[in-house]
Design goal:
- The protein is of the alpha+beta class and about 150 residues long.
- Helix content is about 40%, strand content about 20%.
- The chain has five helices and five strands.
- The protein has a five-stranded antiparallel β-sheet with strand order 1-5-4-3-2.
- Strand 4 and strand 5 form a beta hairpin.
- The longest helix has 14 residues.
- The protein starts with 6 loop residues before the first helix and ends with a helix.
Amino acid sequence: MRKILTAAALTIFATAASAADMITYDSDQSFDDVVFGLENAIIDQGLVIDSVSHTGEMLERTRADVGSDVVLFEQADVFSFCSAKLSREVMEADPMNIVFCPYDIFVIVRPETPEVTTIGFRTYPEGAMKKIEALLDGIARAAVGLE
């Protein structure tokens, strides 16, 4: 039997998801250098970048259109990729882990700290997904020279 979620239940899920914890690393390297390091760290793991979302550009381009004068980022990109081997492993443990795929790592520079580039990713729940969190942590750390 299919379960039907009410609007209230969907709102609760969306709120919980938006409050997810993150792991971040700050660097004095330029945005471009961190991006270059991230691209190489992903490739070094034998993975392929599926997409790059230029989130900062989109937010800046649409800022006036939505009636805002707030500059959120100097630069902000989100890199999405997947690991066939690990994805299969975590989805065999729980097929609903599909909700976490693809995996994302962001790189941002905030206007109030233009000398700091931040790289990060969301944390994952206990269990099989901690392997993905460890993968992302290794990639992020390698991107900024911590590994």
